[in-house]
UniProtKB/TrEMBL annotation:
A single Gene Ontology CC term: mitochondrion
Gene3D superfamilies: Hotdog Thioesterase
An annotated Gene Ontology molecular function: (3R)-hydroxyacyl-[acyl-carrier-protein] dehydratase activity
InterPro entries to which the protein is assigned, alphabetical: HotDog_dom_sf, Mitochondrial_HTD2
Name this protein carries in UniProt: N-terminal of MaoC-like dehydratase domain-containing protein
Entry-linked PANTHER family: HYDROXYACYL-THIOESTER DEHYDRATASE TYPE 2, MITOCHONDRIAL, N-TERMINAL OF MAOC-LIKE DEHYDRATASE DOMAIN-CONTAINING PROTEIN
SUPFAM superfamilies xrefs: Thioesterase/thiol ester dehydrase-isomerase (SSF54637)
Length: 375
């Protein structure tokens, strides 16, 4: 999967916290700042000339049952959908999901993974499928949105990605903008990419828009200073923050991150190479994949929906209309954190879901929009 990490680099976190602004019109000053901005603008224009002239990149793939099975088990979910909990004797450990089983929200991440030879990968292990030219080669997935266009419950037939079907992915570049990090004055490029996922009947099932930040490459010969670990909240403070919330606690380990990387074919070294993560990129441990937390937010929402609508005959299959999300801080292996939403939000059209570390840092925020109760 194309760079399946969501704003994981230490400096990307700084960029989001400090905010960024558009590059001003070209200055003719001789200052280094002006030349750097001009370079960023020129590289942005070259990128758009290469990718954004209406081209689309099309791939087809069988939605394999075993890949989905292994992915769900990696996430410690023995059932794809909550309805399966009524039959505890059969789990994904015992058998693959049946042909025709709907693929849960954002589990399509495991399909259409990168198809590149090792020599094409970046020094940090990331694929270079939609990268601007050097020096802007360090890609971080900063956020985006996903619409389950074919999951409208009011239609007679839903258009869903299903196990055993042959789906099509259509990718195109939407934009590339030079930006400046307000606090540091550093240039970066923000690239927006759109992916359509269609079933074998050419029906649109999922519209996935991803915002990538490209910053200048790091020099492995220059050791990075490690981010210190903040003090965790006391149990009393954690209990207070949990009042009125639906939540799920996590503490991911290195084995889970390795399996997630393998299934998404993501070779970004910050997720499994601790010396690279700590000494080159300045993290205090290997980094939890951002999409793992995005999926955890969606899983929390649909589990809550299944519990609330237990009497509704939908076989436990619940899709939102869309999610809009933004990553704000890394999550590290071996550190506890929680995914939470307000109890009352589950019955509302819009529900805010957050990923919050046990030191109180908000690491990811999302707004999940439900389908209206009436057509």
């Amino acid at each position: 999967m194309m760079a399946t990490y969501l704003l994981c680099a230490r400096c990307a976190t700084s960029a989001i916290r400090s905010g960024f602004r558009s590059v001003k019109p070209r200055s003719f000053s001789s200052s280094p700042r002006s030349f750097k901005s001009a370079d960023a603008r020129a590289i942005s224009e070259a990128f758009l000339n290469k990718f954004s002239k209406g081209q689309t990149f099309v791939r087809k793939q069988l939605l394999d049952a075993n890949q989905l099975r292994l992915f769900s088990l990696t996430l410690d979910r023995p059932h794809l959908w909550s309805s399966s909990k009524s039959s505890p004797t059969k789990t994904l450990e015992d058998e693959e999901p049946l042909a025709g089983t709907p693929i849960p929200p954002y589990y399509h991440l495991i399909y259409f993974t990168p198809a590149q030879l090792p020599g094409v990968l970046g020094l940090d292990g990331t694929d270079a499928s939609f990268n601007p030219d050097a020096p802007f080669t360090r890609r971080m997935w900063a956020g985006g949105s996903c619409h389950w266009s074919g999951a409208d419950p009011h239609t007679s037939t839903q258009s869903l990605l299903r196990v055993g079907d042959t789906a099509t992915e259509i990718t195109k570049v939407l934009s590339c903008e030079p930006k400046v990090i307000g606090k540091t004055g550093e240039d970066m490029l923000v690239v927006r990419v759109e992916k359509e996922f269609r079933n074998s009947q050419d029906e649109l099932c999922v519209l996935d828009r991803r915002n990538w930040v490209f910053r200048t490459a790091l020099d492995p010969a220059q050791p990075a200073s490690t981010v210190p670990k903040p003090t965790e909240l006391s149990q009393a403070q954690l209990d207070e923050a949990a009042k009125g919330k639906i939540l799920q606690e996590y503490n991911r380990n290195e084995a889970m991150l390795f399996r997630f990387s393998a299934l998404t074919f993501n070779a970004h070294r910050i997720h499994y190479d601790k010396p690279w993560a700590t000494e080159v990129e300045g993290h205090r441990n290997v980094v939890v994949h951002g999409p793992m937390n995005l999926i955890a937010m969606l899983d929390l929402w649909r589990d809550a929906q299944a519990g609330r609508k237990a009497g509704v005959s939908r076989d436990g299959v619940f899709y939102p209309e869309k999610i809009e999300y933004r990553a704000t801080s890394p999550v590290y292996a071996g550190e506890a954190y929680r995914v939470m939403m307000n109890e009352g939000a589950v019955s509302q059209m819009e529900a805010e879901v957050k990923v919050v570390s046990n030191d109180g840092t908000a690491c990811m925020k999302g707004i999940v929009t439900d389908w209206s109760s009436t057509p």
